[in-house]
Amino acid sequence: MNSSQLKSFSGLYTDFYQLTMAQVYFKKQKHLATATFDYFFRKNPFESGFTVFCGLEDLIDELENFQFDESAIEFLQHHGFEEDFLSFLRKFEFTGSIYSMQEGEIVFQNEPVLRVEANLIEAQLIETLLLNILNYESLIATKTARVVLAAKGRAVSDFGMRRAQGLGSIHGSRAIIIGGASSTSNVYSGKLFNLPVAGTMAHSFIQSYEDEHEAFKAYSDVFPENSIMLIDTYDTLKSGIHNAIKVAREMQLQGRHLVGIRLDSGDLAYLSKKVRKMLDDADLKDVKIVVSNQLDEHLIKSLLDQGAPIDMFGVGTNLITGKPNAALDGVYKLSSVDGQNRMKLSDNTEKLTLPGAKHVMRLYDEDDLFYGDVVLKTEEPAAFKVVHPSDPSKQFDAGNFRQEHLFQLVVKNGSRTTEKKSVREIRQTVQNRLEQLPDEHKRFENPHVYKVGLSEKLKRERDDLKSRYESQY
Q1: Strand duo 51-52 + 106-107: pairing
Q2: Is the per-residue pLDDT at 2 higher than 70?
Q3: CB of 243 within 8 A of CB of 212?
Q4: Model pTM score
Q5: H or E element at residue 210
């Protein structure tokens, strides 16, 4: 199915139960009730101390195409939906409003990241699309940010398209660049999102020639300004590096320069040290070393801790799939209907949902670094006393901190209200915000838990509604 076909079926990009609930809302004349839903998640992925919020621009774009054409209506007729409801769907479009943190923001568990205000049927029908986009792209952007942190300023390139879950690679590569990678091998996404693309050669290219030197020579003849030689097809130290050095010297005679070599197997720390010495001894100190092969943030950290002289990392499977986490556990929960607060109960206080329309305020310390976030009612313009969500003995005064509103109106009456940001701009947001995140939240081992508190008013409303529900049910 091509992209145009996907868009023509966009109204069906949902779970079946969203449509069954929608028909009930419609038949019972409840569909025009005003509703508020929150998007948030309960745990940072990868045992991380933070999450990168990603996918907002894609979500807004897709909402503009979220409609039911005649082929979609015919499909739903076949599955027993009633004609009056289908007539309603023929005219369906999202006309609500969305308040959100900016894409590229650094966000944390148990705080609203985005709020939808719409009639009940519209807010319900977009749930699956919203979760599908935001959960996946935020997962992959977060993984990338961790890999980039581990690389300590060295370039990271996305090699993951062939290992991705089908068409997930399209938006996955976008999220990878937003997370901080310098390039992607994904040509389709490169064109679609204006991403920097890069790539060199595979082992099959070298095997297609009679010998390794001939293959390297052919590649350098065609790409004299961008040659990186893959040197482990046969024997890295006895053959590959020697042929790469030979071609590099031949290029020098022609006034050209070998950009680098790539290692894709073996002991990368050991081999990179050996190869670096051989390159340096051949007076090829400016030839870069690129490595790949099942890399992730932990292996990259280990390689650099061992002093491996690596200049660039090509990261594939573990990046595009978000390994070892299969998904971000983002959820979309109802918080009010027709102005009446709603919440979901739980035996675990930390898993109680928060009632009503809310926004988030970020607090900064004297060094202008993130100190903590506060969830407030929308009518509260600032945070005063901040209360721990589950331990009332933990409180502090927010008046001593600089405060920043994190929510902005991004969709009003179904239309975008902000200028669309490029991938480059969102990527810069991620980098800027990570610089403001204290190091204890960025470490891989036992990262410090970021403070997310509630205003006194919101906590009181939550506790009062919880008591009322418990006495009722």
Answers
A1: antiparallel
A2: no
A3: yes
A4: 0.96
A5: none
